[in-house]
Design goal:
The protein is mainly beta. It has a single domain, classed as Lipocalin. Helices cover about 5% and strands about 60% of the residues. It is built from one helix and eleven strands. It has an eight-stranded antiparallel barrel with strand order 1-4-5-7-8-9-10-11. It is elongated, with a radius of gyration of 17 Å. About 20% of the residues are buried.
């Protein structure tokens, strides 16, 4: 079968995250500038090659002061490490709609293996003749595994920010000619 290349449809895709704040509620954020590419055997996403990058400067939590802190050396250290990267290593088909996406995630200068649940929405032609594929990705990472260790104690002795970060993405890809 021939190799098919897929590119991100940025107007129909988003990357979001949630993290516990003071262990009582979640703070939600997103990255607004990112890219995803995939190479498949025909239209079969099993065993495909997937790559992802995001611009750390595009982080948005709806609070400029917090976004600035997240870009600082306390967290992402954007000046030294301007991108977060993911290189897929394996895709396991679990059913017609469910996959497990395994790969290496690099944040700052730390690369660790991660797995994400990938729900395949299907392939369809849009009104303009473009062939699109849709996925919903869900996962959880421990931010300390990637050197994001900053924290503060609350008055009650708890932590200000949890270690676990939930990731959720809606990705739409466009088949390249």
């Amino acid at each position: 079968m021939s190799t098919t290349k897929w590119a991100l449809d940025p107007t129909h895709s988003e990357i979001n995250f949630k993290i516990k704040h003071m262990m009582i509620s979640n703070v939600t954020g997103s990255f607004t500038n990112f890219n995803v590419t995939a190479e498949t055997d025909g239209d079969n996403f099993a065993n495909s090659k997937v790559s992802f990058t995001t611009d750390v400067n595009s982080i948005n939590t709806n609070n400029e002061q917090r976004d600035g802190h997240l870009k600082s050396a306390d967290f992402f250290d954007m000046e030294k490490y301007p991108q977060i990267k993911f290189e897929g290593t394996k895709i396991e088909k679990q059913s017609d709609e469910e996959y497990a996406l395994h790969g290496n995630l690099t944040i700052r200068d730390v690369t660790k293996p991660v797995s994400l649940k990938a729900d395949f929405g299907g392939i369809a032609k849009d009104p303009y003749g473009n062939i699109k594929a849709g996925f919903t990705l869900d996962g959880k990472i421990n931010r300390k595994d990637f050197g994001l260790t900053w924290n503060a104690a609350t008055e009650a002795g708890g932590l200000l920010v949890s270690e676990d970060l939930k990731v959720q993405a809606e990705i739409q890809l466009v088949k390249q000619a």
